[in-house]
């Protein structure tokens, strides 16, 4: 990144304004957590209410004077707004307040920049930051409006600002090209899983709902999990065995938040496609959050934006330990699981979640007894390798009697590899059901 971000631990004044329009309202408590997650030290919270934001400085003159006094009293280094500011509003506020001003989008981008660990994640964050900064390039750089001049500085006649914007566009184009390559690689991996008929399950949900803790518990992974917003940024995929389903691929994804900046959604499209292409979404919900219902609605909005709204969902109501509730499964009229109440932290209800996953991803199973002659030892070995043998015995003639249970597709593929006919092993009732 060629522009610098300030270090953590800065004293910050937070500004939260209540507007009458529902689509402009934000959560002050969540904003405080965002500021702490970015490493800021909130010194004060300035609250107020307005019908509409002031087009020039967002705040009215009275609130602006109040904000100046708070900044002076706390010697604040940065002012954080819980709202989206236009580039001109940001510049005007910095001129009036004589300190740095950052809006909600810039704050979220800063958190993402701190949390990115993989090369892909860093590229995605840089792309979002560059597109955000491109409209704010002018602030604090008035000399960039002048033409280049002097010995060795006479250029093609463009201003320094135009040169910087051109360099920005070139960098953005290069990142898009590299992310397109990542997207193609992910698509190839998905096609390989499709050929192997391995279902994909993606965890989605509001930030800090407990997705990573649940993911770690189910997959024995070591993904970073913490009680903070956007603890997970880089996607992680793990293979998990589910009873009566076989192997599945489970993906942990970045958390969503109210008014998630559109530029972030665009930048993380390669990552979020894991959710759009999944066979099932596990929508993890903080059951103890008083804003639970609105959080669910916000997640569903983002799912619509990334084209994942048609993917089947299984709701997981997490953190029931904070409610004092017991684990349980909710079902629809057709007895299909719709929600599971669990505590990922305590590990309670996870057996019910696995049961629900089996029901939602259930495949046709072959459950029968076979008698194999000695020359069919290869088939016996393959069935053992698939963990399909439930019981085994041998008779005096050296034949093997096996009780097996495995997905139908796996059994048919196994017979096909050995040029065996299914009708030699499966009962007539199987073929009657098939037709």
Automatic annotation (TrEMBL):
PROSITE patterns: G_HFLX. The keyword S-adenosyl-L-methionine does not apply. Its main location: cytoplasm. Signal peptide: none annotated. Its cofactor is Mg(2+). It is found in: Cytoplasm. GTP binds at residues 205-212, 230-234, 252-255, 318-321, 343-345. InterPro entries: EFG_III/V, G_HFLX_dom, GTP-bd, GTP-bd_M, GTPase_HflX, GTPase_HflX_N, GTPase_HflX_N_sf, P-loop_NTPase. GO terms for molecular function: GTP binding; GTPase activity; guanosine tetraphosphate binding; metal ion binding; ribosome binding. Residues 199-365 form the Hflx-type G domain. Belongs to the TRAFAC class OBG-HflX-like GTPase superfamily. HflX GTPase family. This is GTPase HflX. It comes from Larsenimonas rhizosphaerae.
């Amino acid at each position: 990144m060629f522009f610098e971000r300030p270090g953590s631990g800065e004293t910050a004044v937070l500004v939260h304004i209540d507007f009458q329009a529902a689509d402009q309202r934000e959560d002050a408590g969540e904003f405080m957590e965002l500021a702490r997650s970015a490493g800021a030290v909130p010194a004060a919270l300035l609250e107020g209410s307005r019908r509409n934001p002031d087009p020039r400085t967002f705040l009215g003159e009275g609130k602006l004077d109040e904000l100046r006094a708070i900044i002076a009293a706390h010697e604040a280094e940065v002012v954080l707004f819980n709202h989206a500011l236009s580039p001109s509003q940001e510049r005007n506020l910095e001129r009036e307040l004589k300190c740095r001003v950052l809006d909600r989008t810039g704050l979220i981008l800063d958190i993402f920049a701190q949390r990115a660990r993989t090369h892909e994640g860093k590229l995605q964050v840089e792309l979002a930051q560059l597109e955000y900064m491109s409209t704010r390039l002018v602030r604090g750089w008035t000399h960039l409006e002048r033409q280049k001049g002097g010995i060795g500085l006479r250029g093609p006649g463009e201003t320094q600002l135009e040169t910087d914007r051109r360099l920005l566009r070139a960098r953005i184009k290069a990142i898009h090209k590299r992310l397109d390559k990542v997207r193609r690689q992910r698509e190839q991996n998905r096609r390989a899983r499709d050929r192997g008929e391995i279902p994909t399950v993606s965890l989605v949900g509001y930030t800090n709902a407990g997705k990573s803790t649940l993911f770690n518990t189910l997959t024995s992974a070591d993904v970073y999990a913490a009680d903070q917003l956007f603890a997970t940024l880089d996607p992680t995929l793990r293979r998990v065995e589910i009873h009566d389903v076989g192997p599945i691929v489970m993906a942990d994804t970045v958390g969503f938040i109210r008014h998630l900046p559109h530029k972030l959604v665009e930048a993380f499209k390669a990552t979020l496609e894991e959710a759009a292409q999944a066979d099932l979404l596990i929508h993890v919900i903080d059951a103890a959050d008083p804003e639970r219902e609105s959080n669910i609605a916000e997640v569903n909005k983002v799912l619509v934006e990334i084209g994942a709204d048609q993917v089947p969902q299984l709701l997981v109501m997490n953190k029931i330990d904070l409610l004092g509730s017991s684990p349980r499964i909710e079902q629809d009229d057709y007895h299909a699981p719709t929600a599971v109440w669990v505590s990922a932290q305590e590990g309670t209800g996870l057996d019910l979640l696995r049961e629900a996953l089996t029901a939602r991803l259930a495949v046709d199973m072959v459950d029968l007894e076979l008698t194999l002659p000695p020359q069919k030892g290869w088939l016996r070995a393959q069935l053992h390798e698939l963990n399909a043998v439930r019981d085994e015995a041998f008779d005096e003639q050296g034949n093997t009697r096996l009780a097996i249970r495995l997905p139908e597709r796996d059994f048919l593929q196994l017979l096909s590899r050995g040029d065996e006919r299914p009708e030699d092993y499966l009962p007539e009732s199987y073929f009657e059901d098939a037709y």
